[in-house]
Design goal:
The protein is of the alpha/beta class and about 130 residues long. The chain has six helices and five strands. A five-stranded parallel β-sheet has the order 3-2-1-4-5. α5 packs across α6.
Length: about 130
């Protein structure tokens, strides 16, 4: 089994009622069947914020989504002081410090694959970004 880090955008699409939500849920199930899945608290923070701010999804709905769809199946990598030191190496490649923290979590956990729509990660050394085709 491969380890894969799941970025915010994937979970947002699962948490937002759109015509493609079923495709994302199917893909998540496939990821869970074939890989060990990880994320971190930066992703959960962004998920709560963007779901509310951009899509109008109440915080309690997103928290229920996290409790029922993410926490039972996807491991949450902790943030550590060492992530800051690693993050500094990724800042030249990441326009957002939060993306550099995601990259540092991945490096510390020896995860190379990233499920993300964010093509900024294509510039980050050591990360193989992939996305689902809809």
């Amino acid at each position: 089994m491969t380890s894969v880090f799941i970025d915010t955008d994937f979970f947002i699409y699962m948490n937002t009622p759109t015509k493609t939500i079923d495709k994302f849920i199917e893909h998540y199930e496939a990821e869970l069947s074939n890989n060990r899945t990880f994320t971190n608290l930066i992703v959960l923070d962004e998920l709560i914020y963007v779901s509310r701010k951009k899509y109008g999804i109440p915080v309690d709905v997103t928290l229920e989504f996290i409790d029922s769809m993410i926490l039972p199946f996807t491991s949450i990598l902790p943030l550590e002081e060492s992530d800051y030191l690693i993050m500094k190496d990724f800042l030249p490649y990441c326009p957002k410090p939060s993306d550099a923290l995601i990259a540092s979590s991945m490096k510390r956990a020896s995860i190379k694959e990233l499920l993300s729509e964010d093509n900024d990660f294509d510039k980050v050394p050591g990360i193989e970004r992939r996305w689902i085709g809809l």
